[in-house]
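Hey team,

Filing this mostly as a record. A colleague (T.K.) asked me to run one chain through the structure pipeline before their review meeting, and I want the input and output archived in the tracker in case anyone asks later how it was produced. No errors, nothing strange. Just documentation.

Input sequence:
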Amino acid sequence: MRHLVTDPKYGFLKELGLVSENPGLFDGRWGGSGKIIESISPATGKVIAKVREATPQEASNAVTEARKAWPQWASLPAPTRGEIVRQIGVELRKYLKPLGRLVSLEMGKILPEGIGEVQEFVDICDYAVGLSRMLPGSIFPSERKNHVLLEKWNPLGVIGVISAFNFPIAVYGWNAAIAMVCGNTIVWKGALSTPLVSIATTKIIAGVLERNGIPGSVASMVTGGAEVGQILVNDKRIPLVSFTGSTAVGKQVTLKVQERFGRSLLELGGNNALIVAQDADLEMAIRAAVFSCVGTAGQRCTTTRRLILHSTIKKEFLGRLITAYKSILERIGDPLDDGTLYGPLHSEQAVNEYMRAIQEAKDSGGIIEFGGKRIDRPGFYVEPTIISNLSPKANIVQQETFAPIVYILEANSLEEAIALNNGVEQGLSSSLFTNNIGNVFQWIGPHGSDCGIVNVNIGTSGAEIGGAFGGEKATGGGRESGSDAWKHYMRRATVTINYGNELPLAQGIKFE
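Output structure:
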């Protein structure tokens, strides 16, 4: 069977070093002797190329190689590590468009989003370069004469990164760039359904490391399913596992890591709400809601799942939102085509989950205001969907469905809207549209949103790398990127130095 990688239309795949069958293991050398899997284009259902997985033993060996490379990498001055990360950013810029096209082809998001995702990795490399010259420590005065107290930060060692299909390169970038300048090596397991992005990205990074005389195993990569993931989760040589995925799996990951006294950095589900107050700029709120609800076909962790509308503007807002959704249907197409605004779901499984959620909403009394059907064309396309007439306590409203489905809820006050926003298990992203400064400070204060991301007059999606990304409650509590994310990848030591010739004890204790 002919693969898309051999089609001249997809020449960028060869530019990225991809072939019909690709090795799914990199531990300084390319390999893999596990089963062969196929990477499928969500837009067409056709095979892009094949990948040979790593076995669990090969994944364990990759940890060994990353551990071997760690002393050399950690011994480099932090600014030197930063220079190498800078070069990675430069190389990613060089491949910005072809790598972005691969993200769109394999994940299914539209091309501007695919390129934007690669740009995120570039941006976090730039951020990490600056960080490499500013990694802090602290000096404190001691109560004892001729003593000084220091706080010293050192790298952890080997970091395990398990990322998800919806952001197949950016989430790895958030972790990798900062972890590397902090002096750690990495073993990365990307999503099993986006292996080509993992391979192409690793090829780019490996080239930079090789040119600098650094072992490639500093940035190792393994392809595989749950068995391979469990190797990273259970291995005591990995002091930190960064996991992005569902709340259910994240709970299992953190329990396993805690059993061995390791650390976990979790970015899990989000049941995000966008509140529109009665004084809001409705035009701005509509534009934000459309992107937040249907961008990436509803497959962002920060996608708006619930629209909480003030009762006085609900009817008008819903009517205008439906009109906007109709225009989206005119822009459905192949993610790689210019002008496409709305692409497919990632897999047949995702389509099935979408259809299940639609049926459950109907069974619970929901009214389909727009959409609700699979689109009759090749690939995994569904209609963006708006559902009303459901209780905020309905089981389907309380769940996160990874699809372009939004539930319309009503509130008569900001206090009621905040209670609805906070009335779910997850706490990732939230947004309020208002022109009342009092509402703003109520929203961002201690009695406002309980989420990790609390926005005003922008949607729930579209975070920048300068702010900490993550959430509370069942979202996991982890933070990637942002001002102090580097602390996740380092261990802190309190150091007391006596530079005198006496040995006084703290608290004035006499032991004579």
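Quick notes for T.K.: The chain has 15 helices and 22 strands. The first helix runs from residue 12 to 15.
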